[in-house]
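Human: You know discrete backbone vocabularies at least as well as I do. Show me how you would write down a chain together with its backbone fold. No explanation is needed for now; the record alone will do.

Assistant:
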Amino acid sequence: MATPQEIRSVSFLIEFLRDPMKVGAIRPSGPALAQLATAAVPSTGSPVVLELGPGTGAFTAPIQQRLAGSGRHVAVELNPRFAERLATRYPAVDVAVGDAASLRKVLARRGLSQVDVVVSGLPWAAFGERLQLDVLSEVAAVMQPTGVFTTFAYVHARWAPPARRLLRSLRSRFEEVVVSRTVWANLPPALVYFCRRPMVAAVDGLGQAT
């Protein structure tokens, strides 16, 4: 009988084959990367955690473990099939089928304006520069000033144009961007960006970042 991790891997591969530009990888992140990427989630208090692109739930599980029934966990997933499976598997998670470029609207519908931690599993390499900046502007706009945003990149592609553009984009939206150690146990090896002190872009009268 297949293990839950094997089932998630197969589901992930199927969705990748359906739409590789939106899924962005052929397999979910491994446990070691997931633990590091979610390390900023407080294990005390009642934090509001926003998860972007949860897919099959590689980061969802450790976030839930750290929250241990407290706080609030909102996951924004563009793929409706991933979202449906995630909601079934993690009933404590508020799963929204939506676009990460519209986070303020997604959160407003839930009576939220700011969050404490944002954990991203988004396929940045599949995003153009404009979309990267739009998403990061939304992230910065919904974060508490003391909040933390984490996302990851694959080591082998770190110096490729999309990854370098991502790092520039992060540094244009956050005062501090710390690069983690390499997670060699992940396949492929990856690293995590820990971003703090968001620099919120100017907002026009229509509520859109300028």
In short: The first helix runs from residue 4 to 18. Helices lie at 4-18, 20-23, 31-37, 60-67, 80-89, 103-108, 129-142, 161-173. The mean pLDDT is 85.
